What does this fold into?
Amino acid sequence: MYSTRIYYQDTDAGGVVYFANYLKFFEKSWFEYLLSIGISIPEWEKQDTYIIVRTATMDLLEKLKYGDIIQVDTSVTEIKNSYFILSHTVFKEGKPTTKGETKMVCINMAGKPKRIPDEFKDKLLKNS
It folds into this structure.
């Protein structure tokens, strides 16, 4: 689980988290999640395996404000040959405030879709 504080830079003029910044929270959380299950994106990039976000959705349940402390929980919900889907839930004081999903696509350096390498996929499957 990724934890952070809401900083001034995360908010709009009213002190409420600007909607696009939730995607940044998701990004940091999924990167940390993958590291926690033994998947280092920089290491895979050395092997011509890149992961990009194809689709992102979110549902804002409750607004977050400057100074709030949040936790973002990320988990794998679906795994196919060339993509996987991650689910994200943002919590404040143990209560969900935002839910979202990101569809992560595996590509090579040229930007062409490719199969998720077996070792990578096995780690996802083991932790889904």
About this structure: Strands lie at 2-5, 50-60, 69-79, 83-92, 95-107.
